[in-house]
Design brief:
homotetramer, 336 residues, alpha/beta, Alpha-Beta Plaits, TIM Barrel, 2 domains, eight-stranded parallel sheet, 10 helices
Amino acid sequence: MIAVLKAGVSETQKKNLINWIKGQGVDVHISEGQFQTVIGLIGDTSRIDPDLLSGLDIIESVTRISEPFKCANRRFHPADTIVEIGEGENKVKIGGGNFAMIAGPCSVESESQITDIAKAVKASGATLLRGGAFKPRTSPYDFQGMGADGLELLRKARKATGLPIVTEIMSEKHLDLFEDVDLIQVGARNMQNFELLKTLGRTRKPILLKRGLSSTIKEWLMSAEYIMAGGNENIILCERGIRSYDTYTRNVLDLSAIPVVKELSHLPIIVDPSHATGKSRLVPSMSLAAVAAGADGLIIEVHNDPEHALCDGAQSLTPAQFDEVAKKVKALKEIV
Amino acid sequence: MIAVLKAGVSETQKKNLINWIKGQGVDVHISEGQFQTVIGLIGDTSRIDPDLLSGLDIIESVTRISEPFKCANRRFHPADTIVEIGEGENKVKIGGGNFAMIAGPCSVESESQITDIAKAVKASGATLLRGGAFKPRTSPYDFQGMGADGLELLRKARKATGLPIVTEIMSEKHLDLFEDVDLIQVGARNMQNFELLKTLGRTRKPILLKRGLSSTIKEWLMSAEYIMAGGNENIILCERGIRSYDTYTRNVLDLSAIPVVKELSHLPIIVDPSHATGKSRLVPSMSLAAVAAGADGLIIEVHNDPEHALCDGAQSLTPAQFDEVAKKVKALKEIV
Amino acid sequence: MIAVLKAGVSETQKKNLINWIKGQGVDVHISEGQFQTVIGLIGDTSRIDPDLLSGLDIIESVTRISEPFKCANRRFHPADTIVEIGEGENKVKIGGGNFAMIAGPCSVESESQITDIAKAVKASGATLLRGGAFKPRTSPYDFQGMGADGLELLRKARKATGLPIVTEIMSEKHLDLFEDVDLIQVGARNMQNFELLKTLGRTRKPILLKRGLSSTIKEWLMSAEYIMAGGNENIILCERGIRSYDTYTRNVLDLSAIPVVKELSHLPIIVDPSHATGKSRLVPSMSLAAVAAGADGLIIEVHNDPEHALCDGAQSLTPAQFDEVAKKVKALKEIV
Amino acid sequence: MIAVLKAGVSETQKKNLINWIKGQGVDVHISEGQFQTVIGLIGDTSRIDPDLLSGLDIIESVTRISEPFKCANRRFHPADTIVEIGEGENKVKIGGGNFAMIAGPCSVESESQITDIAKAVKASGATLLRGGAFKPRTSPYDFQGMGADGLELLRKARKATGLPIVTEIMSEKHLDLFEDVDLIQVGARNMQNFELLKTLGRTRKPILLKRGLSSTIKEWLMSAEYIMAGGNENIILCERGIRSYDTYTRNVLDLSAIPVVKELSHLPIIVDPSHATGKSRLVPSMSLAAVAAGADGLIIEVHNDPEHALCDGAQSLTPAQFDEVAKKVKALKEIV
């Protein structure tokens, strides 16, 4: 970490600051310039809060040199992580060249609904089944999901098709209910629900960590670090669009996050074009773009009757539309 | 709610849509224009998801007319809400002309630290004491707060000064620990941790609900609605800056949120200039601006030794600086 | 356009508003709801400013139904526009299935530099040559480009290779100098320099209109409309990233803008991955993603010696790197 | 400037980089850490583009230490700048404790309109008259202002009241028409129209430089630097709201920009609450907040008949409302 002092800082102030830094177990390297003093902090600076330093009256600016994440950092773990999901012959790998196609409805609604969709998307090449049982909704008056009953229906659909299941957790208190879920999703709104992340870090379940609505890529990796610091290294990241000032699409899908994450981290990254755009007619082009950008997988909403979906139907494809997207993705994968 | 259909929609598509809307228990009023059909949705449209509608291929745009929040809505509750905090002679009111001055350190560190600060800020006119026991930190390696021990120290400081205490909750699982806390804070990162909001809605504790990092004012009010829908109407909103592209201050303090919230809702709103700017030297001017804009209170970080604070010291005032701000705020309050 | 009145508006206020709207030559259709009155504005509402209406004390919300752009609107011009650039055997088409590969250095620096690069990128399949002569720089002390001399060197490179040339205009006063330029670029910072747009609308030169730093897609199309309203329909749009809160990349490349623009407008749209990301190592993946998303072309910075470029070298590819990207793009084009 | 090299950079790459930096006339100070090399750039680094450096493959990060603006920098010019506007007995000062109250309509519409408003706002204490003659409008079909005729009417209103006049310039070509204007405004959309800024730098006219829609504070100061580098030091900055994701107000008024600008620069800064919020009912509270935050003035839209204004009427106060705001501002000024 490098701290630049303001012009005119007194020797006493300088000495106090240096003593405080050393008191944190960090060494310093001082270089006096014509107008300013630059202090290099050497050693384990992860315990020093750059915001604290940069707010001090005597500090002009602070730059972090080494990334504050360790477990998620490609520098200390050069090889791609490959996450294994599910068991036996239905086991699926994601990352390191293994591509995952996740599909299913926004919400689980009934046994026939989820099982029919599961069969349809499997026939089109999906390798995992998604479906919401607990739903984060902006309004308390909106449909909140079927809860534990929805999880049960997902298990039935898994039994019928062999597809491992992916579904969102919204509370630490629900962890027991998720023991049998193959890939546990942490939604965008909970990306910095640190108590939930710590709890998941104590399990060894594969986690799908969605990017927060307005989180930087480094904050996102720090949230992965929260889980990994607990010993759980089975993390898959999911880009799902970030908030912007343009209202035509729900969010702006940040596809450059794919090569950036691959540069900074060894974790796999997949893309959710359905939530990112909020419009099913934009899903096919954004799916192909994500694959071309190097994504390790896609998670796509599919509904057998979009106009009657209880939630988010607008961003869902029909099974036939999904089949077409899956075919194009497969063709594209072969040349990328 | 008003839905505008695209040009060229077939009669069958139109009929299907109208039947679906009616199936949700909502009536429709259709007006055919030269190029387009406009459908007015009449009745309780809070169950209709505008995102779902606007994503349908046959829909051009959707506008919500009545706000989706009810309990928090000034239209149905014209008088200002006044929240009462604490008990007996130390009881404090916020809202409806009652101004609250909340002060204290970012983190509770020791009995002498929190008690000394509590005495100092009380002498300067503070009416509540803040202090973090559970701390949300971007990095798992940063100081996470003293936890339950910190709550105990806050109670000691309350006993020593009579000031009601304010501190942040980070998990539903901790609710028992907070039974004795006078005002429970929900932090920006948990503004849409809906399970936590529901849990707090089942209590009758006063809640300080901070605005999410990038939440709209309406999303913020919907989060208040989550708590209120459970029967707990003791909500105070707190503007603490929103994320922007400028990196000079930590966030952009959105002071126009004050008159806007007062227009849309009857709930009190206070301002946190310390977290918003991240720089203590900007706190005095932003405190005065918040008061001039009509805030119902301020929550300001004060530390007895900012350069040695374990966290966020950069945004903390010394007791002497706080005393000066408090005096100016008092003078300003008299003329606003 | 639809205006929703607030509850409690008086009959007089309502009548005044309706009379004012009719005075603008626009008809009204009134529908009285249980709590609110909704006014539909019928006819040519492009002269009514929705911001004006929505700011009135008696108005709750305003929704524009028909897009305020006419010339650029696909509704009134369903077929894709094809823009023709250059003359004779070197003529290039963009749009309607015609893909353009534009390449060249950020700044023109010398005859050998621009001519060498032109030859190299032509050999790799580039169909137009880009190069900056007038440069928009944040600082007045940064290199501002070679100006008219740079234009002369571009002409020499065109003569040597036959590639039509693309370069940025920064002032109406320079229009005479650009008479011989094949495709005139309007930069992001000038997207709402309306006097410049009007001036270009009076020519019949092909224009490459970059998206403003924080402009919505509709504002961007309105800027195209400024040029087209003057009679010049030869517009190509260029997505080059939008401003966000994440500082790792210079901007966030918004690839969903491609299908959205194609839905709203008939104009061709190309992508600039070099300026969007600011890092040459992200250019290959973002180029492929743009093609997969349906872009009508790419504009890529190429420099023969990136570490010595006077400006923006960091985002430039070497000719060898460009050759590799061009080959992959070609392979991808064949299957998309 | 400080550049941090990536781990694993070769000695040759390091030497090449250092030679290139020295070739720009800048000295270097190298410090080798355990994992990384840090290069300090010493001397006039304003010619080095940090974006170029940070994009190089061998560079991890770049930090600018000294601000790239010189003329606008408080470090080199500690005393507040006071800008003088107008002549003789009507001369007005802004900055260094001199507060300006600027008021008038969005657009000049007729002699009686502008003169009546001028008289009214003068009676309420306004010290300058604003009014648009050339109007920047998002749509080419919206009213574009009266142009030169509007300037003539402003001169008449000045003659009738003695108030110096403020109006926006939209093109270098119009400079002759503005010779007689007391304070020339550069609008948000032209903040980075660098040719216009250079042209104004060659005059000695006072300039009101509005902040760009999404510009950082430092970019804004760099635009002031463009004008000042030409020798014109009569700059007043104007905060007018920045773009955000919340659509309730037109923009987010960034009042922390006031103390930040005063820290970084010696130039006066005023606030435009009318354009920032887009709603006249929010203007009074935001005016008071701006004054409390330390603004050197306000620019407020006033119209004698808001519901009939040709543009932006929604954000205009009536003269009676303005009178009330002016009284409160005056009372507040006395205690701040």
